[in-house]
Amino acid sequence: MPISFLMIIATIPLTSAGLLPFSAKHVVIINKLVTRATLIVHCKNKGEDKGVISLGPGDSFDFRFRVNLRKTTVYTCSFAWPGNTATFDIFRADRDDNPKSKVGVCSECIWSIYEPAPCRDRRDGGQPNCFQWDGFP
């Protein structure tokens, strides 16, 4: 019994650090458009469609999932606001569940959506990590 308990305790930090497969993730998307426009969000991966969500200024939408065994999980979202549409991979295992990535591992991945860029907030309150839109016609 004590050995099993120790094994569970020992794996908790590894899972949250992105070192084990099937790590639990929580993605939060917050509408921070400076124009205070409504943001239409549609997120999906190969097997799951999160539906179309309308976010007013300051509103948020969230979803949870587990990274797949091969650590290739990707969730892509399309974003629309008056006069603009854009797409962005809101979660990519190679970026968001990889301790060697520039931005590090997130178990709670909080994204603030601004007109010029989607930004992943930092848990320590530091400058967020902002990225270019993947598609911005």
From TrEMBL:
Return the GO cellular component terms, semicolon-separated. Answer: extracellular region
Q: Which PANTHER family match?
A: PTHR31232, S-PROTEIN HOMOLOG
Q: Which family does it belong to?
A: Belongs to the plant self-incompatibility (S1) protein family.
Hey, what's the signal peptide range on this chain? 1-17
Q: Which organism is it from?
A: Eruca vesicaria subsp. sativa (Garden rocket)
Query: Could you tell me the Gene Ontology terms of the biological process aspect for this record?
Result: rejection of self pollen
Q: Where is the chain membrane-spanning?
A: none
Note the InterPro entries from the entry: Self-incomp_S1
The cross-references to Pfam families, in alphabetical order and at most eight, read:
Self-incomp_S1 (PF05938)
Q: Give the top-rank taxon of the lineage listed in the UniProt record for this protein.
A: Eukaryota
Entry protein name: S-protein homolog
Localization, per the record, is: Secreted
Keywords in alphabetical order, please. Answer: Secreted, Self-incompatibility, Signal
Q: Does the keyword Membrane apply?
A: no
